[in-house]
Amino acid sequence: MVSAQLTLTVLMGVFLVGVAAFLSRVEDWRSYTPLVSGGGGGYGDAGAAVHREKPAGITRWLTTVDHKDIGILYGTYAVIAFAVGGLMAFGIRVQLIAPTGAVFENGFYNAILTSHGITMLFLFGTPIIAAFSNYFIPLLIGADDMAFPRINAIAFWLLPPGALLVWGGFFLPDMMGAQTAWTMYTPLSAEQANPGVDLMLLGLHLTGVSATMGAINFIATIFTERDDEVNWANLDIFSWTILTQSALILFAFPLLGSAIVMLLLDRNLATTFYAVEGGGAILWQHLFWFFGHPEVYILVLPPMGIVSYVIPKFSGRKLFGFKFVVYSTLAIGVLSFGVWAHHMFTTGIDPRLRASFMAVSLAIAIPSAVKTFNWITTMWNGRIRLTTPMLFCIGFVSNFIIGGVTGVFLASVPVDQILHDTYYVVGHFHYIVMGAIAFAGFAGIYYWFPIFTGRMYQRTLGKAHFWLSMIGTNITFFAMLFLGYLGMPRRYATYDFNSAIAPLDMVTLMHQAASVGAIILLLGQIIFVWNLLQSWLEGPKLEDPDPWDLKETDQHGREFQWHERRITTALADGGEEEKAVTDGGEPVDEDGSDSTDDD
Q: What does the record say about its membrane topology (predicted)?
């Protein structure tokens, strides 16, 4: 078994070296020039215009270093991962309809439970944020492209093999997916004789390297590639959150990589990093959660930036307290590294340490509350338009309040000792990751859909997606909060326990309610995927480069100004966007206005 695992590890290393060698020999990745905010300037020397077109077909997507193309690749990858992780979640809820388990045997249940968590956090959460940031950060700051376009491409292409490794245990003969839960606690993860665990750890390592490379790129881009008109005072809120997130990644992900390498060494070379005679099982928890809690804010800060960016667009006013939103973002980034041990209140750590971590865990709720009040105040007395992006932003705020308040309870030592490792924790966490992070992702997809595709989605289906997602989310995860109060432990494949422990009828009812909510959620996501694909392929082409009428409220962002210039350039080059010409075919100024218009 050890020799087989070592062979697998060596082969994976050889494969990665081969990929790196191939990429290093690909010439002229940047031979074409993407359309940029300045009107077509090339990479490097601004005067060196290159007129070759992008390659066509699959070659374009395999060799592109254009930040917009890479953003679309990230988004496609993330939606696929979201579908896989969502189907795993649906399988979990189907299993728990009956106390004795409805469909799966315990081992397979544990495997999909593990893969669901890792898929949603590492294969969907981080890449969907990278999709938005890759596409729009250069547009928002007036940059030609990312600071390191080739590194940007390599960062993405590390993700598909990472996903195949994470899921590999399900598809290879004589293997099973890892059954460690997504936290991979030792000694279970160190002693589980399943090569699928090694595959999963290698896949996680690749995703961590990808995220770190991307973070370095975003930091360099925002610091060095900003347009002269973009300074720290008028940098948009989404870019601020990406900058903070990238700093968190830079400090957190390398630590996870080191912890994973030590775990692989324990599994394959009989080292004792996490053995009793070495660092002990508690060492893994410290290392993992020092990464793991900043990871929550790595995932939630950019969605907060999307919401802070979109809400003013449909409220008809600027973001209330912009500076305080920025300061609260930076405060969350700093405090996030001081709260990790609130995951370990029941491990027997020193009570004085528990008190200090409880204090910081409660304190980090303050900057989150600042953001919440600023969002609400921005909408207060505003000219609110309930478009699909705005509905998802409002849903984000309401779900985030529930998730945040339940988190405050878990930050309290005595409450956490009662509710630790129950479904209350699952409900709290999913109010954040599904009810908030995913909702902000949907808001961003719908808001920027006209830029991605040049088309408009079906508005009715978009609103149906919102309402089904909102209802399904609250039914599913509110039921889990009740299950936690009933004492139902998480990660159990069955719950046919003695009714003296907990009222079994009530526990069964709550599980069934959560499963009904999951069905509603699934219906909503099917509508989302259909709407996304059908509208992208067949949706009505936009006649107006300002589809949200943002100029009326002085909320026309730099990315839509770029979009307007793109349409103008297409017309000048003989494109097909004839309907976008102003009445009479009059020339269009740089700011997109009709040069002959007297209004």
A: Multi-pass membrane protein
Q: Quick one: DSSP state of residue 120?
A: I
Q: Could you tell me the sign of the dihedral formed by the alpha carbons of 199, 201, 205, 211, in that order?
A: positive
* Cα gap 440→451, rounded to integer Å: 17
> Is there a domain that residue 427 lies in?
no
Looking at 222-226, 512-516, 548-552, which range is the least confident one? 548-552
Question: Of the residues 207, 229, 251, which one is the last residue of a structural domain?
Answer: 229
User: Which residues make Cβ contacts (< 8 Å) with residue 6, sequence separation at least 6?
Assistant: 268
- Calpha distance 135→562 (Å, rounded): 12
Q: Alpha-carbon distance 507 to 42, whole Å?
A: 62
Q: With DSSP H G I counted as helix, E B as strand and the rest as coil, what are the percentages for the chain, rounded to 5?
A: 70, 0, 30
261 and 341 housed in the same domain: yes
Residues 98 and 215 in one domain: yes
Report phi then psi at 412, rounded to 5: -90, 125
Tokens (6 digits) for 132: 């938005």
C-alpha–C-alpha distance, residues 285 and 483, integer Å: 25
26 within domain boundaries: no
Q: Which amino acid is at 285?
A: Q
Asked if residue 280 and residue 175 are part of one domain, the reply reads: no
Distance (Å, rounded) from C-alpha 24 to C-alpha 5?
29
- CB of 311 within 8 A of CB of 347? no
Judge if 288 and 275 occupy the same domain: yes
Q: How far apart are alpha carbons 471 and 469 in whole angstroms?
A: 6
Tokens linked to 119: 């898929």
- Split into its structural domains, the chain has a count of 2
Which residue range forms the structural domain that includes residue 283? Answer: 231-310+320-351
The structure tokens listed for 29 are 């990745």
Using alpha carbons, select from 594, 592, 585 the residue that is nearest to residue 562: 592
Residue 178 lies in a domain: yes
Residues 215 and 285 reside in one and the same domain: no
Residue 487 and residue 419: Cα distance in Å, rounded?
A: 7
Do 216 and 243 belong to one domain?
Answer: no
- Nearest by Cα to 157 from 219, 228, 220, 73: 73
pLDDT in tens, 70-94: 999 999 999 999 999 999 999 999 9
* Same domain, residue pair 235 and 304: yes
pTM of the model: 0.86
- Cβ-proximal residues to 26 (8 Å cutoff; 6+ apart), any chain: 63
Q: Which of 229, 262, 290 is the last residue of a domain?
A: 229
Give yes or no: residues 115 and 91 share one domain.
yes
Q: Is residue 49 part of a domain?
A: no
pLDDT digits (tens, 9 = 90+) for 299-308: 999 999 999 9
Please report which residue ranges of 434-577 form alpha helices under DSSP H. Answer: 439-453, 459-485, 504-538, 558-572
The tokens describing 277, both together, are 């005679």
